[in-house]
Design goal:
Blueprint (H helix, E strand, L loop, with lengths): L1 E8 L27 H11 L7 E2 L8 E10 L6 H12 L3 E9 L9 E11 L12 E2 L5 H8 L4 E4 L14 E14 L2 E10 L6 H13 L5 H8 L20 E8 L1
Parallel strand pairs: 3-10, 5-6
Antiparallel strand pairs: 1-3, 1-4, 2-3, 5-9, 5-10, 7-8, 8-9
Helix pairs in contact: 3-4
Length: 260
Amino acid sequence: MNVVCIIAYDGSKFCGFERQKHDSCMQDSMRNLPMSVAGFFEKTLEKIGIYTRIIGSGRTDRGVHATHQVINFHAHFQMSLEKMKKLLNDRLYPFVFIRKIFIADDAFHARFDAIMRSYKYIFTQNDMMPFYNAYIAKVRHGRLDLMQQAIRQFQGQHDFSLFKKNDSNTTNFVRHIYKANIFPVKIHNIECHVAHISANGFLRSQIRIMLKACFEYSLAKISLLDLQRQISNTISIHDAICIRELAPPNGLYLSRVIYK
């Protein structure tokens, strides 16, 4: 059977979604090698007698969270889905939670069948109690209207060659951004902003570089023309105005995945 789960997880406790070589060991605080989300989930499946690999809709980086990650795995089992959900959630607690579980067609693939992914990025420039630091990014930025002006430049279809990490092994850099905006919000009395970005897909660290460029523009460190030239690939990666830094990962959440 092809089992599909919608899961949420605390990315601060993992080295990212994609499994790693060191996943055979649980977190070693001396070596600072936490497991991946995929590795942790697969180890948890083994505890209830299911030995399989999982497929995720998106490969979130270290420190990035998810409220709506979709995974699927193929397995044979002799239990109800509700019992499986209960057994897994008891063992995944407190860092991963299965929100929904159901059976899909054998051909369903969580990654390749997705047609849209949405992320949210929560950030502030205010001081916070330490309990929020893993979940709200603290960044310097300028006025909201300038950040909104910058992020809307990304809407539409573009070649995002200059908005990816250098070690990305992807060969097609064209993505379509359907929606990109930023709005103010108050979270536990903390004045914050939330960026909401939806696209047919994203390159590695693309969103964090895009947001860093928006922050830099709002602080007058680059011009709108500089940003537009980076989006249109009419500057070099070596130009001083080409933004290559990443916004912090802790404010980023995979929030929705849409299928055909």
